[in-house]
Amino acid sequence: MRIVTIPETSGELIALLEQARDEDVILRLDNGSEFLLSAMDDFDHEISRTRRNEKLMALLDERAKQTQTIPLEEVKRQLGFGD
After folding, report:
1. In whole angstroms, what is the distance from residue 11 CA to residue 36 CA?
2. Would you say residue 2 lies in a domain?
């Protein structure tokens, strides 16, 4: 992801950003290309960073493929919890 700083003097662009604070804005070019302008919060940034973590994504993909489970009674036994 690339971050671009917008000067406050860009009136029309600043107005679009203000609109995007309240709701997503679709920007459409004359050629039909569309772009989504959306406000982000800290959680959005964290999700973006997490998705770029290739090792974590590979681990999660691998874990998602696992089908073997451990019964609850076995977990209790291994942890020393009695009935």
Report:
1. 19
2. no
Q: Identify which of 34, 45, 35, 36 has the alpha carbon closest to the alpha carbon of residue 3.
A: 45
Residue 27 in 3-state DSSP? strand
pLDDT digits 0-9 by tens, 22-78? 999 999 999 999 999 988 887 887 888 888 899 999 999 999 999 889 999 999 999
Q: Where would I find the H helices in 1-83?
A: 11-22, 42-51, 54-65, 72-79
Given this model, what pLDDT does residue 83 score?
61
Number of domains in the chain: 1
30 belongs to a structural domain? yes
Residue 28, in any domain of the structure: yes
Domain assignment of residue 21, given as a range: 11-65
